[in-house]
Amino acid sequence: MTILHIDLETVPSQHPDAREQARQSVRPPGTLKREDSIATWWAESGPAAVEDAYRRQALDPAAGEVCCVGFALDDADAVAVVRTLEESERDFLLRALKAINALLEARRPDPSDPAAPWFDGVRPHLVGHNIGGFDLPFLRARLWVSRIKLPGWMPGPLARVGRDYGDTMVLFAGLRDKISLDRLCRALGVASPKADGTTGAAVLDLWLAGRHTEIAEYCARDVQAVRSAWRVMTGEGCEPWAA
């Protein structure tokens, strides 16, 4: 079975009106009733509240956008494709999908092989951390927004974890609980991608500053960490035992 480990990095909407939309969603505390108190709150706390609301768009597939896709096939090196500042999300998504498809196409058997006619490309088993709760639905939504047909290897909205894709968070914590990738890696004794202090919260600032190599390296570390955790939990490299 070919496993495609995948991870996304996202940013808030890049539409010119995105911050104004965020501002409209912000409300002063309900305890403030007087107009002068509300005005003071807007002057002192409003800008930070609007900025926080704007940045939270990166977690909302209806508003946020994809800026990096990291992936690795089986034992291959992790690759991360980063969107340029001048690139539309649609153009970026097409570029990222083409990069993944190129790797899958390279796994296609020799057409002269007698068994080849039935083969319709490699359909990998996707694996990620919280992939069912974030990466897959976010990527699907942004492909729909961009009017891009979902690739055949992507599980659909009704896909089931464990059957159609693998999720390291669910595998460790179950369907009801959660665990961060950093905590999971530390628990399993594998290298954490967050060890240098970089987190997803830093991606927007790094991206706007043009520090795209740092984003690519961070995303690739996420992919590598997911792969290491997945292998531990599925028994690869673990000590066998006898009853």
TrEMBL record:
UniProt xrefs under Pfam families: DNA_pol_B_exo2 (PF10108)
Region (Disordered): 1-32
Name of this chain's protein: Predicted 3'-5' exonuclease PolB-like domain-containing protein
A molecular function GO annotation: nucleic acid binding
Highest taxon of source: Bacteria
Residue ranges annotated for the Predicted 3'-5' exonuclease PolB-like domain, each copy included: 121-223
Classification of source organism: Bacteria, Pseudomonadati, Pseudomonadota, Betaproteobacteria, Burkholderiales
UniProt source species: Extensimonas vulgaris
